[in-house]
Amino acid sequence: MAKKPQTDVLDEALDVFKLLTFDDQAQFIKQLEEVHSTAKASKVAELQAALAALGVYGGGDRPRRQRQTSGGERSKAAVKYRDPKTGDEWSGRGRPAAWLQRHLDVGKKKEDFLVG
Hints:
By secondary structure, this protein is mainly alpha-helical. The chain has helices spanning about 5-20, 20-55, 100-105, and strands at about 80, 90.
């Protein structure tokens, strides 16, 4: 099966590139990047215009997703356990509070301190 003509051109360009010195290759890469950047900007503008004509996209910057709030901005967890004598509270998340752990160590149950 014969190669496409464009593939032949790319193969020839790569063969010539291999013959260049390291410094010439670096300079050539910079020039390629500039040409590609210009072509990319032109293609993006063309696609944005086509989308705008369809009423799908107005162009300009891409719409950004709204940033999710970080964990520090969440509301405080509701209290699930309370010591009736001291008023100490624990939400039931993470390690048991020290006051509750002392009660558990002497044989009391967590359920004894449930709120409401």
